[in-house]
Amino acid sequence: MKCLCLNARSIVNKFDLFHATVSDIDADVIGITESWATENITDSELSMRGYQLFRRDRSTGNRGGGVLLYVKNVWQPVAFDVSSTYGEHIWCRVSGAANGGAQGAAPPRNDIKI
Question: Where are the domains of the chain?
Answer without folding.
Answer: 3-105
